[in-house]
Amino acid sequence: MKKYIPLLLFFSCFLFIRDAYGFDIKGLQPVAPYGVFSTFSADSLKKGNYAFGAGVEKSAEPDFFRYLFQYAHGINDRIEFIATVPYVDRWNNVKSGFEDIALGVKHRFIDETKYTPSAAYMVNASIPSGKEMFSTDGRAGAGLIVSKRVGPVSGHANIFYEKAGSSKLEDEVSFAAGFDFSAAHDFKVLAEIYGRKSHYSGSLDDLEGRFGYRFMTTDYLYTTVGVGVDLKNRSPEYRLMLSITAILPVEKKTIKKVYEEDK
Asked: Is 254 within the bounds of a domain?
């Protein structure tokens, strides 16, 4: 039996490396309602408005929880600053810690018309602040965002390129396409397909379909629920998602009163 111990240790090392480099790094995420799940919209917060968001994901195979903390600020009606802080809990039931903090600026340079879509570009960077197994030692990138509304349906398409801070990791390319369907004034149906060539692979290794709903709980509060399903037999097999976002300051609505004169 002793002669097999070195062989077992050898294969154990490969298993460990596969898990470490196969972790699903989250990165910058859109703040509701200006996006689907990971698909950004070319629309943005109005000047002076800001948003706070908190969310949780439960992923399976590998199993872990991820908590997301988000902030966004409308610099003007075309430019928006976005930040995402992800925290991973109990990855493989033993590891927890922060991922790199992601920051970005989105600028809509083409407004939507009756026949043409709106378009925006985004530049983003991650601060190398995460725990080692959840970090790429920072990264920087840019992307293009296109959106178009047709009746009650809004469609969005994104493509992003990011370069990892560590020279040992591959460049990352991701794409996303999603839509939201306004089923009612305060209720939307969401769908998205997300693909990525990640920092630990030379080919497409992540393809996921995501579906869910978004509720406008109040005039300034949005609740999003969804499920992501793997389409490529790679990890994670599925994920459950929940997030709540508040848009502030709350806009005061003027109530108009109509008075009839007595005759």
From this structure: no
Cα gap 188→66, rounded to integer Å: 24
Asked if the model's pLDDT at residue 1 lies above 70, the reply is no
Give the structural domain span for 197: 2-248
Domain of residue 92, CATH code: 2.40.160.40
Entry pTM: 0.86
- Cβ atoms of 99 and 134 within 8 Å: the answer is yes
Structural domain includes residue 16: yes
Q: Give domain status of residue 26, yes or no.
A: yes
Does residue 262 belong to any structural domain of this protein? no
pLDDT, one tens digit per residue, over 72-119 is: 999 999 999 999 999 999 877 778 999 999 999 999 999 999 999 999
- 93 versus 68: the higher-pLDDT residue is 68
Nearest to 109 by CA among 118, 97, 96, 100: 118
The whole-number average pLDDT for the span 118-136 is: 92
Give per-residue burial for 151-161: e unless 16+ CB within 10 Å, then b: eeebbbbbebe
The span from the CA of 32 to the CA of 101, in Å, is 19
Q: Look at the chain and report how many structural domains it folds into.
A: 1
How far apart CA 204 and CA 79 sit, in angstroms, is: 31
**Residue spans of beta strands (DSSP E) within the chain:** 50-60, 64-74, 79-91, 95-98, 101-110, 118-127, 139-150, 153-164, 172-184, 187-197, 206-216, 221-230, 238-248
Task: Please identify which residue in the block is written with the tokens 């599925």.
Answer: 238
**Region 215-230 average pLDDT:** 94
